[in-house]
Amino acid sequence: MTTIESGEPEDGDLMASDGKLPVPDHVAAAIRTLIEWAGDDPAREGLVDTPKRVARAWKEYCSGYGDDPGIHLSRVFEEVGGYDEIVLLKDIPFQSHCEHHMAPIIGRAHIAYLPRNHVVGISKLARVLHGFARRLQVQERLTAEVADCIWNGLNPHGVAVVIEASHACMTARGVRTPGVAMVTSRMMGVFRDDDRSRKEVLSLMGLS
Ligand SMILES: Nc1nc2c(ncn2[C@@H]2O[C@H](COP(=O)(O)OP(=O)(O)OP(=O)(O)O)[C@@H](O)[C@H]2O)c(=O)[nH]1
Ligand SMILES: [Zn+2]
């Protein structure tokens, strides 16, 4: 097995001897600087491995950059007994990080589409969500990216995405206002053009 010390290759596919992702020196140094700036001593025992842990944690939080979410929609099923009503995956928990403060965004998404000729495996809707959520985001863009991806990938009659989330940059710092949720939605096709279809999907989502 190849032993890779911190500071050597940046290649995320290579593993260190302990099986963990190697962390380049300059990345660990940046986190040490932040710890120092925050007021602590990065050399003390409890913090000595923290830069590497933090770096690896951020690779995980941002694993969506290595994902092409549209790929999850490439396998579809046509034998659905003529089913031509709304398909909804409701209350999907997700985590993201806001691009302004890199603070957690924690929420739930409701993703619906009205199929044209085929459906997709239901887990794939959650995979698309996570592929975009595991990046630095603003909620509006996350909502739009998920909806656009399903619209382009499935060519359905309609797509509806509603996201409700709490932003730690508002609850844990700054205005420090807990208990508020940001709600965003993107309606496409029939859900945008037809009032009855929009009402139906919102009602299935439990939002009207
Ligand atoms: N529209 C939108 N705003 C967001 C999102 N995540 C964080 N923000 C906001 O981004 C804004 C950044 O504002 P700035 O004035 O540049 O930063 P700041 O001085 O840290 O602002 P405060 O958070 O008000 O202390 C804040 O109002 C945040 O609440 C998001 O997903 N969508
Ligand atoms: Zn923020």
TrEMBL record:
The enzyme's first-digit EC class, named in words, is: hydrolase
Name the Enzyme Commission number(s) assigned to this protein: 3.5.4.16
Question: What is the protein name given in its UniProt record?
Answer: GTP cyclohydrolase 1
Catalytic activity from the UniProt record = GTP + H2O = 7,8-dihydroneopterin 3'-triphosphate + formate + H(+)
Relate the assembly described in the record.
Toroid-shaped homodecamer, composed of two pentamers of five dimers. Homopolymer.
One molecular function GO term is: GTP cyclohydrolase I activity
Q: Which family does it belong to?
A: Belongs to the GTP cyclohydrolase I family.
Pathway(s) served: Cofactor biosynthesis; 7,8-dihydroneopterin triphosphate biosynthesis; 7,8-dihydroneopterin triphosphate from GTP: step 1/1
Which HAMAP family does this chain map to?
FolE (MF_00223)
Give UniProt keywords alphabetically. GTP-binding, Hydrolase, Metal-binding, Nucleotide-binding, One-carbon metabolism, Zinc
Residue limits of the GTP cyclohydrolase I domain?
28-205
Residues given in the record as Zn(2+) binding sites: C98, H101, C169
